[in-house]
Amino acid sequence: MVSAIIFFLINFHKQNISNDIAVWAQFGDYFSGVLNPILAIINICVFVMLTLTIQKITDENNNTNLETSKKIALMSLKHEELKHFKEVMDKNLLHWSENPKHIDSIKKVLYGYNVLEYRILFLFPELRDSSKNAKLRELLVESLNFYQKGDSEIGFTYHIPLSNFYSMLVSEMGKWTIS
């Protein structure tokens, strides 16, 4: 707008101001002819900038929502796997406590644990470095060694500490599920 006024003043500054309405109408047409294209270009630029800004915000929100959905899905998978792990191990430990003299009972616990551990390592990579996991495996193997030597009574004495480490491991895995 300022450029239109400057341009007008440079070209017509020596002219007298007219009292004729037709001259003022022409003056108005001049300004609208100069200003409308400029305002249209400014309007298009503002529209493009707003569209790009809105698109950027929308993309950021979509990415945030996607990340949140991934975390929820992973948490749900971890929860289901932990639940399955606990169900199988509880059943196997109960079977062992009901049949303390049979080597097959401790073998079932160890075999079940091996399968479950292999299955959940992808979802719980922290399990590799867990001291409770290492201790649980150590107790299972020591107990099985006593059973294999024919000393099921000493082998069964591992049931309580093994159950305690198993409970601590499940608790630790519960924390990993929500982290």
Report on this structure:
The chain is built from 6 helices and no strands. The chain is rod-shaped and about 125 Å long. The mean pLDDT is 91. Helix 2 (21-98) runs antiparallel to helix 3 (103-120), helix 3 packs antiparallel against helix 4 (131-148) and helix 4 (131-148) runs antiparallel to helix 6. The protein has helices spanning 2-12, 21-98, 103-120, 131-148, 152-156, 159-178. The protein is mainly α. The longest helix has 78 residues, at 21-98. 12% of the residues are buried. It starts with a helix and ends with a helix. The chain has a domain at 75-178: Four Helix Bundle (Hemerythrin (Met), subunit A).
CATH architecture title of the domain at 75-178: Up-down Bundle
Give the N-terminus to C-terminus distance in angstroms. Answer: 59 Å
- Let me know the average pLDDT: 91
Q: List the secondary-structure elements in sequence, H or E.
A: HHHHHH
Radius of gyration over all CA atoms, rounded: 39 Å
Number of strands: 0
**Mind describing the biggest β-sheet?**
none
CATH class placement of the domain at 75-178: Mainly Alpha
CATH fold-level name of the domain at 75-178? Four Helix Bundle (Hemerythrin (Met), subunit A)
Structural class determined from secondary elements: mainly alpha
Proportion of residues in β-strands = under 5%
**Uncertain residue segments:** none
Assembly type of the shown chains? single chain
The shape is rod-shaped
The percent range for helix content is over 70%
Query: With helices defined by DSSP (H or I, 4 residues minimum), what is the helix count?
Result: 6
